[in-house]
Design brief:
The protein is mostly helical. It is 72% helix and 0% strand. Helix 1 packs across helix 2 and helix 2 packs antiparallel against helix 3.
């Protein structure tokens, strides 16, 4: 097998017990111990990176849920404020103001009245 020029070389020593296990497993797979160790190291590092990505996605999902809750609370308070301004500003009755806000924001959250 030709050595690839653009890939760095990694070498290290391992205890005899691990070396024996690597040799046995590599032999079962019909590959060299070096190839077996390389494949296991790459697989392990790939799984570690995958776990990091999954953890980050979980964090981001939680942040999105928190933001959605904050937005729903804000929209409810905003709708109530608009209805109160209309009602207590003398433009319409309280019931009419809340009905108008509900109709105008039918796709948004409900007002608390």
């Amino acid at each position: 097998m030709q050595r690839r020029q653009n890939q760095p070389t990694l070498s290290f020593r391992i205890p005899k017990a691990f070396s024996n296990e690597v040799n046995r497993l590599a032999d079962e797979m019909g590959i060299s111990p070096h190839m077996y160790a390389r494949q296991r190291l790459i697989a392990s590092l790939s799984q570690t990176e995958l776990r990091r990505v999954e953890d980050r996605l979980t964090e981001l999902d939680q942040k999105v849920e928190d933001l959605q809750l904050d937005l729903r609370q804000f929209m409810t308070q905003f709708h109530n404020a608009v209805a109160n301004i209309l009602a207590y500003g003398g433009k319409m009755s309280v019931d009419s103001a809340y009905n108008w806000v509900r109709a105008a924001t039918a796709n948004d959250v409900e007002t608390e009245h």
